[in-house]
Design brief:
The chain is α/β, with parallel strands linked by helices. The chain is built from ten helices and 14 strands. The radius of gyration is 25 Å and the shape is elongated.
Length: 393
């Protein structure tokens, strides 16, 4: 979807005390444009022209801001414009970033990288991850031109800056990478953190943006619109059931407040969505009944090892070693297991969602466990795993 208005670059916002509201003919004087007090829109225009740009998109110029005669139209425009900002950064756009504030020369001092206004910590920055970008406000003696000696920069601050800049380029677009980053990042409006994920989560339909929407409602709308494989990653992303009504995936509070798994795991599992029935489902390899033992007691700081006992088609019991790498208890009981292989690192690990099979082929998630490749091969030799469809609750 093309932007509603065009001029084209990205800037992080500036603290109120350090900015001025400028009325300009560029946006038809429709709203005051917040820019740093030391900045000038005409100088920004000149810099963009020097970079070879003819047209540009600037968020504060072309996303309706607070104030002005058209204030009543802002909420309606933002429903569409805010969640679709990510489209500006795709399709090979020439992206220009001001890291020290719109139109300001790039400088770096202690505290900058930890500031809530840092480009590296803003929720909307996530939409730029992995995209080619050019740093504006660059000077010959600026941080971008610092040289390493013996593999190190002159100061720890410079080392940290360049490491963060590279990590933004290398961040995985799988579910866990963006969510881990969002735990540390900030936004003016809390719901912006949810909206900022829409383009990196493969959403097929972008949910409308509402400033006053609750975080859980915004998160639910986003999950319902996500690509089925991303939803599958979400299914396997948390070792405990959701605590906000839906058990198969974590709540927004869980994702932001609790540690996420260290592994980068892609189960290649699809969680489908039936909007008409308001149901989520999986159609994957399952073991209908397995007794899980030895994982009911939590041990801090280490993996827990237990046993999975299943019966073959002759009724003979077989035991397999299992591991829980998290600190969530799995009470001893008979469960249904949904299986998945690690398709990212091919580590040989197999992951299982442990849950209860309910009436109507419904599945209630309880936790997760792992099997080694050796144990999984032994389990496969029993030929008791079958493809089953479950409705997730």
């Amino acid at each position: 979807m093309p932007p509603r208005r065009v001029w084209d670059l990205y800037s992080n916002r500036v603290d109120e005390k350090d900015r001025a509201d400028v009325w300009t003919p560029i946006n038809g004087y429709e709203w005051p444009v917040p820019v740093p007090k030391e900045s000038d829109l005409n100088l920004i225009r000149i810099e963009m022209l020097n970079l070879g740009l003819e047209y540009a998109w600037l968020d504060v110029l072309y996303l309706r801001q607070v104030g002005g005669p058209g204030e009543d139209a802002r909420a309606e425009e933002w429903k569409l414009d805010v969640p679709t900002i990510g489209a500006v950064y795709t399709d090979g756009s020439h992206m220009v970033c001001y890291l020290s504030g719109l139109g300001l020369p790039f400088t770096l001092k202690e505290g900058d990288l930890d500031s809530d206004r840092s480009w590296f910590r803003r929720a909307w920055t996530l939409q730029e991850v992995g995209q080619w970008r050019e740093i504006a406000g660059d000077t010959p003696d600026g941080p971008m031109h610092a040289e390493r000696k013996d593999g190190k920069y002159e100061t720890e601050l410079l080392t940290r800056f360049h490491k963060q800049l590279q990590s933004m380029q290398d961040m995985s677009y799988r579910v866990l990478g963006p969510l881990k980053s969002m735990q540390q990042w900030v936004s003016t409006n809390p719901v912006d953190k949810v909206a900022g994920l829409a383009f990196v989560m493969g959403s097929e339909k972008i949910p409308a943006y509402y400033e006053s929407q609750s975080l859980e409602d915004a998160w639910t709308a986003l999950v319902n619109s996500m690509d089925t494989l991303y939803r599958g990653q979400l299914f396997f992303s948390c070792p405990e059931p959701g605590n906000a009504g839906t058990k198969w995936r974590p709540s927004w509070e869980q994702l932001m407040m609790k540690p996420l798994p260290a592994y980068d795991f892609d189960p290649n599992v699809s969680v489908d969505r039936d909007e008409a029935e308001e149901e989520d489902s999986v159609d994957e390899v399952c073991i209908e009944k397995g007794l899980v033992q030895g994982l009911a007691v939590v041990v801090e700081g280490g993996d827990r090892h237990g046993k999975l006992i299943v019966k073959d088609k002759s009724g003979i019991e077989h035991g397999f070693g299992i591991t829980a790498t998290h600190e969530y208890p799995i009470p001893e009981d008979t469960y249904t297991l949904i299986l998945a292989h690690d398709w990212v690192t091919f580590s040989g690990r197999y992951y299982c969602i442990v849950g209860r099979s309910l009436l109507g082929k419904r599945f209630e998630k309880v936790s997760m466990l792992e099997l080694s490749e050796e144990e999984q091969c032994k389990l496969e030799d029993l030929h008791i795993a079958e493809v089953c469809r479950y409705i997730l609750i």
